[in-house]
Fold these 2 entries.
Entry 1:
Amino acid sequence: MILEKPERVADYTARGWWGTRTLDDLFRENVEKSPDSLAAVDPPNRAGLAPGEPLRLTYAELDAATDRLANALTKAHKLTIKQAREIHQARAEPQARPHISVHLRGNIRLVPVQDILYFMADSKYVTVRTTNEEHLIEDSLVNLEKEFGEKVFLRIHRNALVATDYIKGIEKSTTGNWQVALTGLEKKLDVSRRHAAAVRRWARR
């Protein structure tokens, strides 16, 4: 679609300011002349911003990728009303963060969610615990629980969410209280009476 007046297009083209080739023309020209040259490069910190490792595509690889996408879109069936609603709902729902931002000696550090063993609330701060480190963030367990869900972090106490991937066992202490054992953590975490039934149900899945 051309938004400028035809007179201006003709004038600028005659002066040599504008050309007649499109972006696709320029891209195809580079595919033919330099197929092995880099065409698209992800930022090195992509892993901290979105899932997947940084990509480096040559013109030939990018051309093949666009062809595959075009073919997939061409073969795609018309969406039903139900599918359209599901897509709309998925887009409307906020996606969980792949990392947690923490302050470390005046800098901001990104801690991958997959490395976190548990969140522990204490006053207005929440402790973020990994295998080797602890950090404090200003957040609430309610928000974290809502964001990640119990498939990722299970509430075992009013002040604790534990990573389900690190749970290696649920056992009773000498006092008869339930405790959760986590991989990479020597200390066992107490399960409150209020959440004991839910934790046991999760363990029986």
Note: The CA atoms of residues 45 and 54 lie 8 Å apart.
Entry 2:
Amino acid sequence: MFLDAVSRINSGDYANMNTQGLVYVVETPVKMLINFFAQYVILIKDEQSMKLGYDELALIAIRQADEAISIVFNEEEIDYKAKNSEKGVEEKEFLEAIKIAFEDGVDSSPHESIRLKCEEYGIYFTGKYNKHLYPFILKYSKLFENIVECDMLEENTAIEFLLEENTAGLLDNVSGTAFNVLDNVIGGGPKAWGKVLKGVGKNVGKRAFVSNANKLIGNIGIVVITNKNAIYAKGENIFTIGDDISDVLGYLKCEKDITIAGAVDIYHEEYGKILDNVSEKRWSEFKKVIRKLKSQGTSVKSIGFSDDYHEENNTVTSVSTDDIDVIRDKLLKLKNLLNEELITQEEYNIKKNEILGI
């Protein structure tokens, strides 16, 4: 559902972001695909596609006459048909709700929100998607603001890693719970979309800057690793761990969680347990980052580790026209197989998700 996409965009928590920088995909009532990327949106219907900036999404013209639907922007146009006039009206209302949700224009872009915050507080930002920086600023916006108020982020600080509570076992998808709650709201039908999406959409940009996910996640603790220090934050409780990066692991230890497989609890030598139910894999990655930072030194303004780390994990934000054409062709072929009843709906959904990387 669309609220699912908005929540992901809002929180910056793109766990399923593929190598092409795709944040999330939504299907409209008439099966048009809306592909949300960090910096732009692509609409795909049959053999037609339209690429829009977040500042352009609210400016599209939507025309509907009976089952015929047109989406127009400048000289570009996508034309398609619904099964009947009732479905056509539903499609138009859904698309109008999207326009309302992103009426803040470029401010609704997660990339622009990050850029502005980094510029305001002097945080190092390459312009590429950073899977630790995005959720730190968007998903944990209140904690981020508290950390900034405590002057714990120095000029040109680079965000290298984000360690979060509840990232293992039964609680590894807290944001998913938020999406389910929001999906229930969507059940109110087209008339409910505009009202709900408008409120959610406004949260995406810099103006509100408090995410839906943030409200529902609650009081979760995090440890933020920068190229200069390690910061713990939970609610109003904020402190640095050690004097510099080289001290961090000396202050922390982990113990296996006795209730959930693959989970560990993190303890501070002075303050006791500080993080509960942390993914064991994430804890190992955390230690690897600390050791690499320690070996490279932290005296320079930016050691560039953020860029290297994310390139190793294939998280980039650019998609070529050729890539878009390949995706579209694969989806069209898959849709033809479904229409000819050569594959089931379930097989279609699974393969479609594989193609889109979600």
Note: The chain is about 40% helix and 20% strand.
